[in-house]
């Protein structure tokens, strides 16, 4: 075995020396077996100390950052600030949950235990101008005050306000993320990517947390103690909120786990969603389901539309920005066309129900959302079509997504703040 390893090293060593003038082959050898390459390189370097190519490789293999007196990881300002925010988020969420249990406030208030603290971390990182900072502060305060001035009931207009408020707060968090570059398309695109990476990382950590919680409760049950209620109120709630701030910190600091996996998820799920959706639409036609008359089916139809829109957007944001087209682009285009077909049918069904049964808060909210999505899909489809025809680059497609994002936030704000008064 030693002889075999020695023979491999000698062979690699000879290959390094033989390909000193062939950078491409040196790169191939390095990628093939980095450890063997490094061992053989030291010998080749000793024999050829004047080689310019090997000197570059020497710096690459032995490069070290300039030594600076960095504080230990646990004492870094970013980490300490994140820890404080995570603790405050957990305490706030637990306190809000107490008042929710007393039926003094609406459950949607739990969003204020998480999103403002994530926004605070972005503000700390980005240092936005005073006008952006004051806008964030005022809108968060107004949202919290307004929400708790609404009647604590479950009328349609109030429920719609509850459902749309988190979308509006998500938009405010995006403003904190983009900071002074809120009008920059690439910064908005980075926020969309952040959401996908955050979701993957948070889900991974949450699953680990659930396994720990199940194990803990099972261990205490062996002692005859039922701690489920206490554990949920004081540990799980606190941890779930604090974990959101921790995940924000990790993703913002370029954690490679989430960043490396998201492009592959986009490429895997796009064709799966396309195939599933195609089969589903054929089945719908076959069984004769009618969204014009079946309200529940219309709701599910809109749910599918939102799901496809989200998958398509994230698939586009994770695609490469080079000019070369590939199969993923044609899959994305097909997804957009199918989503537009679904949207058109749903929009027609909603207009039919409005003309037949009259205006209600739910119908008007769904109509507005479908019109917004329809317009956005048209813009994305036309941009993609021009890209596939080599008339524009991929940035035109991303612009069709990022420039439209504020429209969804404004609609969410309108439904949240206006509907309870319009349909009072």
Automatic annotation (TrEMBL):
* Protein name according to UniProt: DUF4153 domain-containing protein
Q: What organism does the UniProt record list as the source?
A: Terrilactibacillus laevilacticus
| Origin superkingdom | Bacteria
Coiled-coil regions, chain positions: none
* The keyword Cell inner membrane belongs to this UniProt entry's keyword annotation: no
* Regions that span the bilayer: 79-99, 105-124, 131-147, 159-179, 200-225, 231-252, 264-285, 297-318, 330-352, 364-385, 405-423
Asked if Transmembrane is a keyword of the record, the answer is: yes
Q: Which UniProt keywords apply?
A: Membrane, Transmembrane, Transmembrane helix
